[in-house]
Amino acid sequence: MVHFTAEEKAAVASFWAKVNVEVAGGEILGRLLVVYPWTQRFFDNFGNLSSETAIMGNPKVKAHGKKVLTSFGNAVKHMDDLKATFSQLSELHCDRLHVDPENFKLLGNMILIVLATQFGREFTPQMQAAWQKLTTAVANALAYKYH
After folding, report:
1. Which of 26, 139, 33 is CA-nearest to residue 89?
2. Residue 139 contacts residue 82 (beta carbons within 8 Å)
3. Measured between alpha carbons, how far apart are the two ends of the chain, in Å?
4. By the 8 A CB rule, do 4 and 82 touch?
5. Which DSSP symbol is given to 80?
6. What is the DSSP track for 17-61?
7. Could you report the per-residue pLDDT of 49-67, keeping only the tens digit for each?
8. Which residues does 47 contact at the CB level (< 8 Å), separation at least 6?
9. Contact 73/38 with Cβ under 8 angstroms?
């Protein structure tokens, strides 16, 4: 289990309050699908994913990205119990969707990149370290049912 300090929890929570989940979520999922095109196979019902422009402008990508990032917000609220928080999603992605758990790490990387892009200097190295710790812990929690 990952331990978050009081300072890390406070930093992540205060930063999370500034995140526009709708905008960031769409960009995060869109980037995942563009940068790692093999992940598109899980979204074959999303319509046109033939190019970066099509993916980034796709309303289904944006809507699902918002859903994913909203769910990630539960991590911010439950940093001390991520395994239980993501237990049902882990089961869904493992048993029904058969998502490679490595994709959760890739998604975490996209979260960090988008936060850094959107917040610039405000996303300090110390803030990045706290968010890296959280995205890694969430990826591990989502992969839990695979073990």
Report:
1. 139
2. no
3. 15
4. no
5. T
6. TT--HHHHHHHHHHHHHHHSGGGGGGGGGG---SSHHHHHH-HHH
7. 999 999 999 999 999 999 9
8. 58, 60
9. no
Most confident of 47-51, 67-71, 85-89: 47-51
User: Tell me, what amino acid is at 96?
Assistant: R
Taking CA atoms, 67 is separated from 28, 61, 114, in Å, by: 11, 10, 16
Half-sphere exposure of 104 (CA within 13 A, CB side): 23
- 78: how many CB neighbours lie within 10 A of its CB? 14
Are 145 and 91 contacting, i.e. CB atoms less than 8 angstroms apart?
yes
Q: pTM for the whole thing?
A: 0.89
Compute the residue count for the chain.
Answer: 147
